[in-house]
Sequence to fold (66 residues):
Amino acid sequence: ATPSPLLTTEQARAQLDARGESISEFARRNGLKPQAVFKVLYGYQKGRRGAAHRAAVALGLKRGEV
Fold:
């Protein structure tokens, strides 16, 4: 099974928009802090470790374990 392709931040934001889901709703659903999701989505953090890493993986921006 081939892994799904990684998304860009723009694609991840578009997916949230397409689902009509806010950053806060996405964060709650995935057990994340909205601030961490926002920072990764808008490029303030790369998502290398900690909460930012978990947010990037949940958003489909990078591979890894949450």
Summary: The mean pLDDT is 94. The longest helix spans residues 9-19. Helices lie at 9-19, 23-29, 34-41, 50-59.
